[in-house]
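Forwarding these from the shared drive since the link keeps breaking.
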Amino acid sequence: MNGPRVRLRPRPSRAVPAVVCSLVLLAAGVFLVWAAIARLVEGQWPRFFTAVPDWLASLSWNSPGSWIAGIVLAVIGALLLLTVLIPGRFHSLPLHLEPSPEVTGTSEAVMPRRAAARLAAATCEHIDGVSSASATASDREVRVNVTTALRNTADLQHWVADGVSSRLQASGLDPVPHITVTIRSSS
């Protein structure tokens, strides 16, 4: 496989801005269709439909209102362009893959941070003394919160940290994030 290496770096879905923009455009389209039908039925545009163009026609191009409206629209347009062009944060952790004779070229795999956190929490659930566990993950750290009925939790903290670290290493994470364990005794 010749050519430049392509990094496995998915972009965020941008679903929320897309839904907001589509709803605004849908509302504008419905409004314009309704105004056009009203124009066909009554023979003239509805009064509120012509109020904005009349107000804009009364403004001079050099008035402060025109400048402010132009600046606001330019900033909104620039923000929308930057939202599209700037890639989002990377939400996955790299996995180490052993070279395979069946695969030519290079391969790359990632594990989402949420999956790493779920794997860490599930690993904790199988450690003796752990009543419940939850975890969060970032690019460099996995934070594990454990609830236990034990009163002396020093050994449990080491068991959890070692168990989660070895499980993440066995899953292929390279490098393995730093493990931080917080234990809360429920007794």
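-- next protein --
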Amino acid sequence: MHDVLIALLTGNRSVDQRMWRSFWDRLHDGALQPGETVALLTSLSTRMPDQSTLSALLRSLDERRPPVDVRLDDTVNIVGTGGGPRTFNISTASAFVAAAMGVRVVKTGSRAYSSTCGSFDLLERLGIGLTVSYGQTEATLERFGIAFPGHFVYPREVMALAKSILPLDLRTLGGFINKVGPFLAAMPVSAQLVGVSDPSLLPGLRHIAAAVADRKIWLCANDLGIDELVSSVDNVIYTNDGSGEIQLRADAPGRAPGGITELRPTGDDTTVVEHFLDVLSGNGTSLATRTVCWNAAALAVAGGRIEEWPEAIAAAEDALRGGGALDLVNRMRAQPAHRAADPRGVR
């Protein structure tokens, strides 16, 4: 059994970068014993590794990536850890609203893991393609102000793990990959808004974010366990730029327990697109509209487009109710980007 597995399963020591490097080498060489990758994913998804092990894992993957030849300045990435109560595609809607406000946005994501319809599933149904390279992502940003990168931003080791556990599904064993997914995607942006559903993840994710120097990272959390900002409850944003915590107070206190149903996905799989477009048309519920606008405002403030939160929220509501966000969706649907290969179940 590989040393990485022994350390993870016994919990008697951290896994350093050298050990992870050896594991990935063996994975690509086909030299691991049968079941070792299943054991790895099961262990990681059952218990989050210590901060030292987690940091070493991410560094070991970063060192294996090909160089990224573009820099997406003045661009914000929005992504979540998944998990928590099921909601409609809030972050994808927020990305369109923010882009209609003039914020340059990239939305990374996946197919459905714990949700009914993941961002990649929704985009496929809308007829909006994923970009297949950094160059195409940059070109799409210049054209539309928003882009949806495909699987090329994730380490090839994720794909190798997915193949190694067949016929098992990564969506069954890949909970850990989903949780750290926001830090697996290599996005050369200026800022990143990360929704965190499970508060127990925050210490590890804050530790990772603190070591990131090339972009501003905002980790967002609330008591509902939804991995986006929600306007009906208090939210906290943990920053990595020395600005401390940002507290966002509920604008409709007391609505959350019953009102959360307003954020649920449509019950009929065939009406996902219709429901999504209704929200972007300004015909969604009050809570859905305000929640989307709060997240779009966060993208504007994090990206430096607008300084003050009230102004940013007002601008988001104008972009949504004024038709700018819906118009952007329709323009992208009319001229979709080249579709990326998207093996089901790999974040």
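Residues 157 and 229 are 31 Å apart (CA to CA). The first strand starts at residue 72 and ends at 80.

- D.
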